[in-house]
Design brief:
The protein is α+β, with helices and mostly antiparallel strands and about 150 residues long. The protein has a single domain, classed as Peptide methionine sulfoxide reductase (Metal Binding Protein, Guanine Nucleotide Exchange Factor, Chain A, Beta Complex). Helix content is about 15%, strand content about 25%. It is built from three helices and nine strands. The chain has a six-stranded antiparallel beta sheet, with helices on one face. The radius of gyration is 14 Å and the shape is globular. The two termini are about 25 Å apart. InterPro entries: Met_Sox_Rdtase_MsrB, Met_Sox_Rdtase_MsrB_dom, Mss4-like_sf. It catalyses: L-methionyl-[protein] + [thioredoxin]-disulfide + H2O = L-methionyl-(R)-S-oxide-[protein] + [thioredoxin]-dithiol. Keywords: Oxidoreductase. Its EC number is 1.8.4.12.
């Protein structure tokens, strides 16, 4: 179980090694992704709050990266944070995500990226529910929900 101190250590010192790497040219990403996905994943944009696919969606399943289809979050870790974006308490594994300090817009935050394809997902904050206190605030455009395996 990750805690805020773990996130800070990863962002400051070194992220976990990904199970694999997916690297493509900007043109290849542009051809594969929708315009909204490309803006979020490759250009680090943020989609509008409350007007996104998974903000109010709580169906069971797994959330995978829209870029490389790596599994990132399980629906059991999703919760209603009233933030306007899908919020999760934990990733599926310590090596699923990459953490970077982000001081854009004169804010001090921790950016979350897919550890396999380096796609921008959103940010993580230390104001989530117990026991970890983490709130992964993720753009819907960076995710695809997969139904549970039968």
């Amino acid at each position: 179980m990750l805690r805020w101190i773990d996130v800070l250590k990863y962002a400051k010192y070194s992220n976990p090694e990904p199970p694999q790497r997916v690297e493509k040219t900007e043109d290849a990403w542009r051809q594969q992704l929708t315009p909204a996905q490309f803006q979020v994943l490759r250009q680090h944009a943020t989609e509008p709050p409350y007007r996104n696919a998974y903000c109010r969606s709580y169906e069971p399943g797994a959330y995978v990266c829209a870029g490389c289809r790596s599994r990132l979050f399980d629906s059991g870790e999703k919760y209603h944070a009233i933030s306007g974006w899908p919020s999760f308490k934990q990733p599926v594994s310590k090596s699923a995500l990459r953490y970077l300090f982000d001081d854009s817009y004169h804010l001090q935050r921790i950016e979350v990226r897919c550890n396999v394809c380096d796609g921008h997902l959103g940010h993580v904050f230390p104001d989530g529910p117990e026991p970890t206190g983490l709130r992964y605030c993720i753009n819907s455009a960076s995710l695809v929900r997969k139904d549970p395996e039968k």
